[in-house]
Amino acid sequence: MDTNTVLKHLNGVIPSFFKRPQVENGIIPVAGGIPFGIERVSNPEVGIGGAYGTWGQSYDNTTLLDLVAKRMGIPLSDNDKMNLSELGFLSRHHTEGLTTEEHLELEIEIGAKLLREAAQANQWKLDEVQAVLIGMSGPVSEHYVEQICERAGIPAGALKVSVHKACDGSVGGLNLALNPTLGKAGNVNVAEELFGKKVLVGGVEGLSRFTSQAHDKNALQLFGNGAGVIGVIPGQTMKFLVGKSFEAYDGEGVLAVRMDYPHSRQSLLDVSQSSQDHIRVAGLMHEPDNGESIEMAGPMGMVKLFVRTGVQVVSDVYQSYQNLMEKMGMPDKSIAVAIVHHANYKINALKGKHLNKLGINFPMPWLVSDFGNVSAASNMIAFLRQLPKLKPGDHILFDGFGAGTYYDVLAVALNAAY
Length: 418
Fold this sequence. Notes:
By secondary structure, this protein is α+β, with helices and mostly antiparallel strands. 30% of the residues lie in helices and 26% in strands. The protein has one domain: Peroxisomal Thiolase, Chain A, domain 1, CATH 3.40.47. A nine-stranded mixed beta sheet has the order 1-2-3-9-8-6-7-13-12, with helices on both faces. Helix 9 (299-327) packs across helix 10. The longest helix is centred in the C-terminal third of the chain and has 29 residues, at 299-327.
């Protein structure tokens, strides 16, 4: 989708998320009542369902500027106001004035609701869920995944995996759940452990809370709350084909993020097991020098950070995919759609342009205009919005990337007989 088409699409044809016909709206009884909306999606043909949503007050690109001015303490200058519609975003959702305890209760309740709704979308009973993998950039609690599982009614013995790789968190979790080549000596091979089991994978991002502790004018305009969780049975409803996980440390701090999670700071990627049923995957971040939660070099910095390496990782995975299709006797089988992290539209369009120059062509739809950048939640929301159009045997490419810098790209087959 070219820029003009996107802008035309954004001009008044997308309603507020809360007004979508399939969204269940409600109030979380915290701090006088916090609005939330959740949409459940199922595709029985491919055997996959899930749920996604958001919480807080909805701000469009105009009213958002007042909120940003309030958080920064001064109005934005004209030069500092981003053209958000050109970047693919219409609105985001924020909460204001909550205490630490209120944020914790709110996000545990939201996470538990998403798990319950995602299980229901797959027609699973909660006691049938055998693993939960959740990506989070700045978790509200060190034990967040365990807390939402307990609140939702997930069995205590279910495997719980917290993935802290910034915006790459949910795709990093999906890659971990499906890709047995990611197993390392001395650690549980998560993909082998979860093969054939009922697994919930997603991202839950309370970014309004996280960015409220920052004064970065770009971050305050781009990010908002969002969450998405899908249900898969590895090897059955979603089969791993090829994939790659790649790290390239952002030494310059182009996108610096405070690590609100345990990390040894001795290696780029920590994998630890805090209990028998909980694994934590934590990525090292270049943290802001001023102690704030996030600091961005600006839109062009994001392009330089993500596009070059991102194109290379996608290209590597696509070459592996073509080689596999040749071996399987399906040389003409193509990627039906790519589900790409929605950092902003211009980043994704430029990645697509560079991939086209390499002869790599597949649809990369822009699907998350009414959320803003919701970090690890964006791939799951985008997948669920595309899910009703997918067919058994379709091959899907997931492209995740995030601050740090972390990349997870994998191709999967949906409900395929082979």
